[in-house]
């Protein structure tokens, strides 16, 4: 509201309104100001994103160089599995394992720990019952998943071995009706965090009779992905080359009575689910500059190279447009590798 004071001829003072903006005019002015401010913020944000993407692309396509203090380098994707995963009853694994992970719901774990006569058949040695009871009591109270770790001496009928790393993963006793009874997402995260980076690991999963092994095998597989693009120091790389051995993880399933499950069909289902999960995770995690359309086609062919009942047909490049697949051709023709359709 703008006002101006004028002097009339008779000498008196008169306040006259020169301009009076109503609510509609003020709203229009403020809307223009806000739009201009948001436009400036948007342009600044997009500029920063373009600069960041350009830097990432230059780094990805450039020759790997030392960064920072000179002791960190860029690693390529892991083409061979660093963790060998297997399932089923295996008495030999008890003597070879350097660490053991006991997984299950808290009430099932208590039943297993109370059976002291089954320690040797499960662990390959006889840990003191008080140690396991203390570990179970150290889990978080309430209905939440947690872990407990301890290094125990290996005392038993077998030959003396170095101290053993023993972990207990306690899952929720109660879950929502839409969740798996064993909280498979929590199982994947806690088993992954409890697994050492090297050695032979024996994972023992306590199940109830009505639980199938396939979903559990898939959950365990998520703990050990095949693809890795993390950076590592030169010291870590040299240590891995000196060791020369991959990590071995063997999974054994036991029922609520503590007996090892030996069903061939169930164990085969768990193994197949684990392989499929690890393959899917590797394909999803691999960067597009590595998993091109040509590389992806080779992956598909390798899956069925031994299966005579499967036939594969490829439509590549300009042939897509000729056969009426203009959308696929139009999207993929700008890439380094030709677009493909596999049938």
What secondary-structure arrangement, pairings included, does this model have?
Blueprint: E1 2-6, E2 14-19, H1 23-61, E3 72-73, E4 83-87, H2 91-96, E5 99-105, H3 106-114, H4 119-123, H5 129-137, E6 146-152, E7 164-171, H6 184-194, E8 200-206, H7 213-221, E9 232-233, H8 234-243, E10 247-254, H9 264-285, H10 293-303, E11 314-316, H11 318-322, H12 326-332, E12 340-342
Parallel strand pairs: 4-10, 5-7, 5-8, 8-10
Antiparallel strand pairs: 1-2, 3-9, 6-7, 11-12
Helix pairs in contact: 3-5, 6-7, 7-9
SSE string: EEHEEHEHHHEEHEHEHEHHEHHE
Percent range of helical residues: 40-55%
Low-confidence stretches: 1-8, 10-21, 57-81
Over all CA atoms, what is the radius of gyration?
32 Å
Beta-strand share of residues? 15-25%
Helical/strand content category: alpha/beta
Number of strands: 12
The overall pLDDT, averaged over residues, is 78
State the separation between the terminal residues, measured CA to CA.
Answer: 72 Å
What characteristic shape results from the CA principal axes?
extended
Q: What's the total helix number? A: 12
Taking the sheet with the most strands, its summary is: 6 strands, mixed
Strand order of the largest sheet: 4-10-8-5-7-6
Describe the structure.
The chain has 343 residues and is an alpha/beta fold. It has helices at residues 23-61, 91-96, 106-114, 119-123, 129-137, 184-194, 213-221, 234-243, 264-285, 293-303, 318-322, 326-332; strands spanning 2-6, 14-19, 72-73, 83-87, 99-105, 146-152, 164-171, 200-206, 232-233, 247-254, 314-316, 340-342. A 6-stranded mixed β-sheet has the order 4-10-8-5-7-6, with helices on both faces. The relative contact order is 0.12. Residues 1-8, 10-21 and 57-81 have low confidence and may be disordered.
